[in-house]
Structures are given as structure tokens and as C-alpha cells.
Design brief:
Helix content of chain A: 25-40%
Strand order of the largest sheet of chain A: 1-2-4-3-5-6
Strand content of chain A: 15-25%
CATH topology of chain B: Serine Threonine Protein Phosphatase 5, Tetratricopeptide repeat
Number of helices of chain B: 8
Helix content of chain B: 55-70%
CATH class of the largest domain in chain A: Alpha Beta
CATH architecture of the largest domain in chain A: 3-Layer(aba) Sandwich
Largest sheet of chain B: 2 strands, antiparallel
Number of helices of chain A: 8
Number of domains of chain B: 1
CATH superfamily of chain B: DhaL domain
Radius of gyration of chain B: 16 Å
Number of strands of chain A: 16
Strand order of the largest sheet of chain B: 1-2
Largest sheet of chain A: 6 strands, mixed
Distance between the termini of chain B: 7 Å
Largest interface: A-B, 36 and 36 residues
Oligomer: heterodimer
Number of domains of chain A: 2
Radius of gyration of chain A: 19 Å
Structural class of chain A: alpha/beta
Order of helices and strands of chain A: HEEEEHEHEHHEEEEEHEHEEHEE
CATH architecture of chain B: Alpha Horseshoe
Shape of chain A: globular
CATH topology of the largest domain in chain A: Rossmann fold
Strand content of chain B: under 5%
Chain lengths: ~325, ~200
């Protein structure tokens, strides 16, 4: 498996050096692996800190900037960051109004962010946490680690980031973030496995002619395999999965997300089928995002995320944002 | 052997570092079947840092050796394995106090305390197909180091038939059956190394 890298051990550090030089709006601490807004700490603003394994770019580093995250902590590929890293991020962006940790529900992420929260509180920083667990493919939460955090993370980070930018206090930003997390649902499909630098090849074998339904974003196989089918049927299954679970009564934000190895040409075609399937089920779409936002290295595949919004959330969605990966309104 | 000192535990952790380095590929391969294909490489990074740190500034007491190793794993491994193995050793180190030598029985009790803390932190129980399926029988067999190593190895083997209920493998449901849990496999390496070092005394 050929990769455009200098060596598996250097992948994350090299990417951070490249991000630093590409985006003057970011301050990148390559040694300690912390990405912050270059104007951090912003006084009298709640700070948002997120992070997780690398390999999901642009999540989370590409969402650092005014109107979204104050800091991101990239771990090793598909491995959560360590508490020291998260603590460093929190102390460097804390503007005196507390810090919100946005955590995807994976055992490692939860443990490391919990440990970091204790350390930050020891240093006198008020910390609130929101757990994102939007993946409806995990049906049996009693006998699993619970639903995974996937595409809904983007909605939480954007909407809570906008609320923080408007000056909302920590309890309100955290409450809003939890409301967004509760209102978001995702479902993903893989056409092939991603290849991790450490393994040097695909993390699982997927025979030609088969699809993985209900995948996560770490190269873990999905819930079941089915015979390969077209975009229309994949859209039907995905839309049914998220709508049957959310049972929306209001307008939706829709994210049609590529996993990193599917061309935008295919994603737009898939999006057309998603919109048809949503229409057939009477769902109202308020805003749409199509592209590679929460990826899994070079995995071929896609996910559909919906988030039910009211007027307040829609206003926060439209509020200005200025990050490497999301940018509008200013 | 009846007493354990700091040098003994440094030799143990050095041996673990060698074993994890040797077996990193196998652990990652196990992890790629039901996880995310990084367990061996993450643990190797952590135990390399532990071994290097213990060589540079060797702590003087058994408790300090384990506490240092625990803190280092928490700071370098990431994922679930870092906090879990780190907590195991940190709590065990704390339980050993500041004495320069402790009896085997005390080390056994301390490691049991550490394993209990792993259960509390991760929320898993015996039979959930996690590292606990190797750790629990191992610490129950202490202070007999050879019996502990055997219990850990058998515990790890027994995870092959289990369905995962915790951690990333749990998302696979019944598809997690038929594979050894990578965390249980690395736990077996820890206790194999402990028995080897004890046998060499």
C-alpha cells in the first residue's frame, strides 16, 4: 500500500507542520500536538476544546477558528489524545469563562477527557463536557460501549461554537451542545477498508461486491455485510435508519459526508438520492453540507447525519465561522 | 523469593517493554480483526518511554517505580489502553507506599487494587471480552507468579469465544466472536514477563 508519508511514526507531526504553514489563523504546537486559534485565549468567551484520534481530518483541527473550536488535540492515528495534551489545550485557550470539552463517545476518548477535566479543575478551570453519540448503527447500547460519536460532532462544534462566540455563559453553551447532540443522528456505509500507516494496509478485508453497513470512523468493520448495491438503495437504508430513530418534527440540517476515499462526484450523486429519500418521507431540509468532513483516512464510503433544528439553532448555524474547513458569513 | 524491591520491578517493566516490542505486530494484528489496528504500536510507544525513563532516573522504591510507569503510560499511550494500564500501575504503586522492600504478598495485593481500579474506570466485568479477562484470574493467583502467568494466558485464550460487550470490539456484536481480545493478549504478556523475572531471581 503506497502512502504519501515520510514514515508511519511521523505522520501526525508532519501533518501538523503542514497545517501550521497553510493556515495563519491557527497556532500549532507541533511538539505538544495542540492546535489553537491564533488569537487565543479570547477574553470573556467560553472556550471549546475537542480532539480525538488523527485520521478524521478536517475534524477536529480544521474546525478551529472564530465561531467554532478554540483548540483541538490530535492523537495518534485513530487513538485518542492523552490527558496532558488536552490539559495544555484547555489552559492555553481558557479566557476566564470556562471550557467546554466536546467528546466523541469512544472508551479511550471518554477516559482521557475525563482525566484531563479533573486536572483542569485542579488548576481552577471550570470544565463542562458534552458527549456526542449519534451513530444509530449501534443498536444495542446495553451490551456495547454505547453509540459512537461521528458526523453529529460537526453540528455540535459549529452550533456550540457560535453560541460561545456570541458570549453565552458556560452552562448555556454546554446545554445547547447537549441539545444538538441529542438531536443528531448518523449512519455510515463503507465500500472498502481504510489503510492505517501503522499497519501499512487495509484494516479489514471487504470482498468485491460487498458493502459494510453501519460502520464507525476507525476502520472497525460494521454491523453487517450486504451485497453491493447502488446509491439509491444505500440512501434509502441510511435515511430510514436516521429518521426512524430521530422521528423529527421540525426542519433538519443534513450532512452528506465522505469518508475520505469517495470522490465528490459520487457524493453529490448520493446526496441527490438522500434528498429524494428525505422528501419521500416528508422530512424538511433547512441547510445542507456535502463533502469530506469527518473522515476515516482513505476509506471509501459515506455517512448521512441529520440534526433537527429550531429557529435558534438555525440562526447559530448561519452565524459567521472562519476555520480551515468551514468558512462563511464574514 | 519473598521480598520485592525497586530493581525487581524495574527488571519486570524492562522485560514487558521487550515483550511488547517483540509482539507489537501480533497485538496490532489482533486489534485489526475486532478493533482499530493500533494496540501493539501504542503500547510499544508507552513501554519504550517507561523503560527509558526508568533507566534515566531509577526510582528508589517499588511503589515509585509502578507510579512512574503508570503516569508515563497515561501520558504517552492514548486510547483506552493508556488510562487503563496507567491506572493499574499507578494505583498499585500508591498501594505499595514508600517502603524500599515489600513481601510478594503485598505486591499481589497492590496489583489486585490496581486491577479493581481498571474495572471501575472502564466499567467492564469478567466475561466482557476485555483485558480484565486476563487480569482478574492473574491477580487472583498471585503471589504465585508462574500460576498468575498461566492464568493470564488461559484467560486471554478464553476471550476468543466471547462476544465483546465493552470497548470498540463491542460494536461488532457477534462478529467479535472467534478473535482473541488484544487487551487480554497484552495483559498476558505483562504477567508472563513478571513470571520470567521472578524465575530468574
Amino acid at each position: 500500500m503506497k502512502m504519501l508519508i515520510n514514515g508511519a511514526e511521523r505522520v501526525v507531526a508532519d501533518a501538523l507542520r503542514g497545517m501550521a504553514e497553510a493556515h495563519p489563523g491557527l497556532a500549532v504546537d507541533v511538539d505538544n500536538r495542540v492546535i489553537t486559534r491564533s488569537d487565543a485565549p479570547v477574553a470573556d468567551k467560553v472556550a471549546l476544546v475537542s480532539g480525538g484520534g488523527s485520521g478524521h481530518e478536517p475534524l477536529h483541527g480544521g474546525f478551529v477558528g472564530p465561531g467554532m473550536l478554540d483548540a483541538a488535540c490530535p492523537g495518534e492515528v485513530f487513538t485518542s489524545p492523552v490527558p496532558d495534551q488536552i490539559l495544555r489545550a484547555a489552559t492555553s485557550v481558557h479566557g476566564g469563562r470556562g471550557v467546554l470539552f466536546v467528546v466523541k463517545n469512544y472508551t479511550g476518548d471518554v477516559l482521557n477527557f475525563d482525566m484531563a477535566a479533573e486536572l483542569a479543575e485542579d488548576e481552577g478551570i471550570e470544565v463542562a463536557k458534552v458527549l456526542v453519540q449519534d451513530d444509530v448503527a449501534v443498536t444495542d447500547s446495553l451490551y456495547t460501549a454505547g453509540r459512537r460519536g461521528t458526523g453529529g460532532t460537526l453540528f455540535v462544534e459549529k452550533l456550540a461554537g457560535a453560541a460561545a462566540e456570541e458570549g453565552a455563559p458556560l452552562d448555556r453553551v454546554a446545554g445547547l451542545a447537549r441539545r444538538v447532540a441529542d438531536s443528531s443522528r448518523s449512519f455510515g456505509v463503507a465500500l472498502g477498508a481504510p489503510s492505517t500507516p501503522a499497519k501499512g494496509g487495509p484494516t479489514f478485508d471487504l470482498p468485491a461486491g460487498e458493502l459494510e453497513f453501519g460502520i464507525g470512523i476507525h476502520g472497525e468493520p460494521g454491523r453487517e455485510r450486504r451485497a453491493m448495491t447502488g446509491a439509491a438503495e444505500i440512501a434509502d437504508v441510511s435515511v430510514a435508519a436516521v429518521l426512524d430513530d430521530l422521528k423529527p418534527t421540525g426542519p433538519l440540517l443534513v450532512l452528506v459526508n465522505g469518508m475520505g476515499g469517495t470522490p465528490l462526484l459520487e457524493l453529490y450523486g448520493f446526496h441527490a438520492e438522500v434528498r429524494r429519500a428525505l422528501r419521500e418521507r416528508g422530512a424538511e431540509v433547512a441547510r445542507t453540507l456535502v463533502g469530506n468532513y469527518v473522515t476515516s483516512l482513505d476509506m471509501a464510503g459515506c455517512s448521512v447525519t441529520v440534526c433537527q433544528v429550531d429557529e435558534e439553532l438555525l440562526r447559530l448555524w448561519d452565524a459567521p465561522v472562519s476555520t480551515p474547513a468551514l468558512r462563511w458569513g464574514r | 523469593m519473598a521480598q520485592v524491591d525497586a530493581a525487581f520491578l524495574r527488571r519486570w517493566l524492562g522485560r514487558v517493554s521487550e515483550a511488547v516490542g517483540r509482539e507489537a505486530g501480533r497485538l496490532t494484528e489482533l486489534d485489526s480483526a475486532i478493533g482499530d489496528a493500533d494496540h501493539g504500536h501504542n503500547l510499544r510507544r508507552g513501554f519504550d518511554a517507561v523503560a527509558a525513563g526508568l533507566e534515566n532516573e531509577p526510582p528508589a522504591t517499588p511503589g515509585a517505580v509502578l507510579a512512574f510507569a503508570g503516569r508515563t503510560l497515561i501520558s504517552t499511550v492514548g486510547g483506552a489502553a493508556g488510562p487503563l494500564y496507567g491506572t493499574l500501575l499507578r494505583r498499585a504503586g500508591k498501594a505499595l507506599g514508600e517502603e524500599r522492600e515489600v513481601p510478594d504478598e503485598r505486591l499481589g495485593e497492590a496489583l489486585r487494587t490496581g486491577v479493581d481500579a481498571v474495572g471501575q474506570l472502564g466499567g467492564a466485568k469478567a466475561g466482557d471480552k476485555t483485558m480484565l479477562d486476563a487480569l482478574l484470574p492473574a491477580v487472583a493467583a498471585l503471589p504465585d507468579y508462574a500460576a498468575a502467568a498461566q492464568a493470564a494466558r488461559e484467560g486471554a485464550e478464553a476471550t476468543v469465544a466471547l462476544r465483546a460487550r465493552k470497548g470498540r470490539a463491542s460494536y461488532l456484536g457477534e462478529r467479535s466472536e472467534g478473535h482473541m481480545d488484544p487487551g487480554a493478549a497484552s495483559s498476558a504478556l505483562l504477567f508472563a514477563a513478571l513470571a520470567e523475572v521472578a524465575a530468574g531471581e
